[in-house]
Every structure is written in structure tokens, then in C-alpha cells.
């Protein structure tokens, strides 16, 4: 591999945003081989604003999903990886938004965006355009993170009259996340005083995935974190630690969520170790 550089700067949003926004990440990756990066599904909705060339993305990997170009893009809840085609350089800002924060920021439930990639200005209107322009004009990561705070606070302010998420759905989401998906959906429903079927319907209406599917995404997210560590565990150990019955179970889910086996994914993922 040729010489490469990787910058990754993380920041927390303003306190008033932390119910809705998990983190900001600034990234500048240069000199890597061209390829296709698998953006994995997880608990958060991901928004990316490019600070250089438009992003070339598809809502699926190796499955014929069309590749589109975005200056800035918001991804809805996913149960498969997003394909990010790159020429060896990526420069931009990533924002992680909780599914329960979609109403506050975008004025709609996360379910309305499920399995989609949407231009950010289609959701935020002129605020989305302003955000992109100001981020590109800023000359430091500190200034860019301040712009994100300012614009997202304005977006949340516009959503004051948007109906809130039902507290039972919010609590179910919190319990699933806290357990990394290793909890019985029926038990969660019973503790909330709902039937499993009713919880599944209400959760899917809000989040865009059923509680069972979301739990599987959380388990995969944990496995993906372990697999992308600088000194990763063997795959069998990754499977055990993240709650899979065995390595074969991990492989089945990995293929479903990334379109590739774990071994093929690792061999093709040229941006590993950039964080």
C-alpha cells in the first residue's frame, strides 16, 4: 500500500442536542487504494457531509443497488451495509443521530427514512444547504463542530411542535441498546405492559425496524466493533463475545448485513484501522 494519512477527530454535540445527536466525527483520509467501503448498520442514523468531492453511495453492497452522488446525505435505519465508493480519499464530517431524535431534527419518525439514503437538504431545506456551505468554508475542526451545533439547534427549534416518541417505545429502544441486543423482546414487552405484537408494531412504526431485527443489528454492531479493533480477536472469539451461538451464526449474519463473508469483507476493506 502507498503512503497514506488518516485524520479522525471526534466531538460531542452541545448539551441541548445530546438527547438526539450522539457524536460528530471529522475525517480526512488520503492515499488509500480505491475501493468500496462497507458502512455498517448500527443503532444510529448516519449523516455525512462531504468537504471535497461528492459521495458515491448505494443502499446495499454487491446487490445491484444504484450508486448515487451526494454532497451531503442522511441515511435512515438500515439492516444492511451502505456501499461507499471511493478513490482512496474521503474528507468530511459524520453526524450520528439517534432514531428517536429523527422527529426533533428532521420532523419525522426514523421509520420514514428506513432503508434509504436521502439528500440532507431534502430533510432540512435551506438549513441543510447552509450547513454544507458553512462547513466547507470553515478552516478548523473546532469551527466545523461549532457550525454543526448551531445549525442542529436551529433544526431542533423548528421541530418544537412535532409529536414526541411514545415513552414505551423510547424505553424499549434504551433497553435493547443497553443489552447490545441480548435481551428477549417478549420480556421487554411484558415489562412495559404491552404484548410482544403491539410493541413490535409500535417500534417498527417509529424506528423502521422490528425490535427483533434491531436487536440483531445491535449484536452485529458489537461484532463489527470488535472486528475493526487495531488488534482484533479471532472470529470465533468475536462471535462468542458479541453473543452469537457460534462462528457459523456470526458468518450468516455478517453475510446478510454486509453482503460478504467476514473474511472477504476484511480482505476488501482498505480503510480498516483509520479510526
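Sequence proposed for the structure above (275 residues):
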Amino acid at each position: 500500500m502507498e503512503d497514506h494519512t488518516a485524520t479522525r477527530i471526534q466531538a460531542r454535540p452541545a448539551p441541548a442536542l445530546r438527547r438526539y445527536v450522539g457524536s460528530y466525527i471529522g475525517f480526512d483520509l488520503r492515499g488509500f487504494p480505491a475501493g468500496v467501503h462497507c458502512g455498517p448498520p448500527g443503532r444510529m442514523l448516519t449523516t455525512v457531509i462531504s468537504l471535497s468531492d461528492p459521495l458515491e453511495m448505494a443502499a446495499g453492497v454487491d446487490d445491484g443497488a444504484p450508486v448515487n452522488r451526494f454532497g451531503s446525505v442522511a441515511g435512515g435505519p438500515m439492516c444492511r451495509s451502505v456501499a461507499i465508493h471511493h478513490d482512496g480519499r474521503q474528507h468530511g464530517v459524520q453526524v450520528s443521530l439517534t432514531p428517536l431524535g429523527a422527529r426533533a431534527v428532521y420532523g419525522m419518525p426514523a421509520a420514514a427514512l428506513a432503508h434509504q439514503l436521502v439528500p440532507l437538504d431534502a430533510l432540512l431545506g435551506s438549513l441543510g444547504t447552509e450547513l454544507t456551505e458553512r462547513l466547507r468554508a470553515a478552516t478548523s475542526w473546532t469551527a466545523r463542530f461549532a457550525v454543526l451545533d448551531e445549525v442542529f439547534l436551529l433544526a431542533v427549534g423548528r421541530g418544537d411542535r412535532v409529536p414526541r416518541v411514545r415513552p414505551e417505545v423510547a424505553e424499549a429502544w434504551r433497553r435493547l441498546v443497553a443489552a447490545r441486543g441480548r435481551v428477549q423482546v417478549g420480556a421487554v414487552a411484558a415489562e412495559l405492559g404491552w404484548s410482544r405484537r403491539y410493541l413490535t408494531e409500535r417500534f417498527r412504526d417509529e424506528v423502521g425496524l422490528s425490535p427483533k431485527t434491531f436487536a440483531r443489528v445491535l449484536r452485529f454492531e458489537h461484532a463489527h466493533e470488535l472486528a475493526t479493533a487495531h488488534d482484533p480477536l479471532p472470529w470465533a472469539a468475536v462471535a462468542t463475545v458479541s453473543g452469537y451461538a457460534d462462528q457459523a451464526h456470526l458468518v450468516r449474519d455478517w453475510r446478510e448485513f454486509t453482503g460478504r463473508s467476514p473474511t472477504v469483507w476484511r480482505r476488501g476493506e482498505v480503510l480498516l484501522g483509520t479510526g
